[in-house]
Amino acid sequence: LRPKKREMQHYVAYLLQAGRTPATVQLKIMTATSLYRALSWAGAVHTDPFTQIIIPKDPTHGLVKRPPYTEDDVSAVLEKAGLQDRVLILLLCHAALRISEALMLTWEDIDVEHRRIQIRQGKGRKDRTVAMSTSVARALKAFRKAAPEAPADARRTTPAHAIFSYSHTTTARYHLKKVFEAAGVKFRGFHPGRKF
Q1: What is this structure's pTM?
Q2: What are phi and psi of 122, to 5 degrees?
């Protein structure tokens, strides 16, 4: 329970030599640090051997680690998507919104005439304005004109002025995963859509 800092740096080197990625090593160190914080809180130890441990950055580019969906993938998924799912997919892929930003949108944030989307309290709690593609504008117009479409097994959990009938990423993942499966495309999360 009382290893020295030098031993911990050797442990990091061992993990990297064993083929673990820097991200995996970082996760292991974070877990161990949490353990030592709990032990310190309980009075079992008085030091954290993981402070000042150096973990090298992963040189692999983000696009290589998490490649974006291809244009063919997105087209195939859009063909299978209902109106609500289509709008969400286009906001992620064409407007490059984060899933949390997309799910917080209200109709007041949308300016179809000037092709702008107002993002409120985005990353870093910052507001920003995003350009709207023609595809996004058309999908939003069609979605607004139609009654808010929701799958039969879903209920609206958001206020009427919200664009989407749900606001939780788990629910969005559930619905989009079904659409991706119907299109024969592997769902790899929301982030690859932002890099499309």
Answers
A1: 0.69
A2: -75, -155
